[in-house]
Amino acid sequence: MSQVCLDQVTKSFGSVAVIPPLDLVIADKEFVVLVGPSGCGKTTTLRMIAGLEQATSGEIRIGERDVTTLRPGLRNCSMVFQNYALYPHMTVAENIGYGMKVRGTPKEDINAAVANAARILNLGAYLNRKPSALSGGQRQRVAIGRAIVRQPDVFLFDEPLSNLDAKLRIEMRTEIKLLHRRLQTTIVYVTHDQVEAMTMADRVVVMNQGRIEQAADPITLYESPKNLFVAAFIGAPSMNFVEGRLEADGGGGGVVFRADGDVPITVPARMVKHLSAGIGQAVVLGIRPEHTMTADPAFPTIRVHVADIEPLGPHTLAIGKAGASAFTAQIHAASRVRPEDTIQIPIDPEKMHFFLKSTGEALRLDC
């Protein structure tokens, strides 16, 4: 049982509180990704689980054990770092087995464990090479192999792919996911890359200023962000936000969104009951770029002044402004839109999100 539980855990450096009271439960065999901008506290949280940082208060449990005050070597966690941390004078086999050698493990057991890790990670042909003779992806696999041979309760990954090129990052994402399926061990993974988080995790924990903004599976985060911060952080390109007001539409019980200088957008009837708290208030309409491409004549439109065009092959991004708000629309690759054009962008009304401007909280969840 490798459940990880953080109960009212805090961390302060002197008088600066970087992690206010934080509660998080990571289930046995779950792959959880901590994601957020630089300085949000995700790495500090990971290091507290590992024992590399001492929690200021609260309790950390791994399985049934309270590990809050235990030194790192007694927690049975294996950590994979961003910079690989391999010994340059040792071979791949020696790097993988070094921790076992230090602990006095018999040589035959070390050799068996190294061979097994090499088989899992396809490193058999490189066991006699030094790290300098390996690619970045191969070095990262060696670092993971060193973690595997310990047979830990929990794997901890601290931005392990950030030093790799784009192609290698994609390949290593797949390898780490396959590794999780094979080993069936709890993984806590830190990244600032939300694409990594969305493609790898069973559950994503979005952090901001030491607090958890939302913790959910990737699709829930994408389709039902809890607030403006999560909505802006999850998705590439980022969600568009247009400020305006929600207003009752006459006596028929309908609701419209009205932005300065644009025609009102009628809210679908099924969404109206979730928006009562926002009627008459300043709100923010959120719409993702990928929900602006379907040219249904019944869809409402938003007027966008185009500043730049980014051709991406299967589609093109038109980047500009809707009134005073930045706006990115996904348009057809064959479109003849050019910079400085002003165009009407259709938006899918079923994909609209609304947030209270005063608090940033979502008005529509799970509907």
The separation of the N and C termini measures 36 Å
**Uncertain residue ranges:** none
Please tally the helical runs, counting DSSP H or I stretches of 4 or more residues.
Answer: 9
Structural class assignment:
alpha+beta
By oligomeric state, this entry counts as single chain
Beta-strand proportion: 25-35%
CATH architecture annotation of the largest domain: 3-Layer(aba) Sandwich
- Taking all Cα atoms into account, the compactness measure Rg is 25 Å
The helix fraction, in percent, is 10-25%
Order of SSEs = EEEHEEEHHHEHEHEEHHEEEHEEEEEE
* CATH topology heading of the largest domain: Rossmann fold
What spatial form do the alpha-carbon principal axes imply? elongated
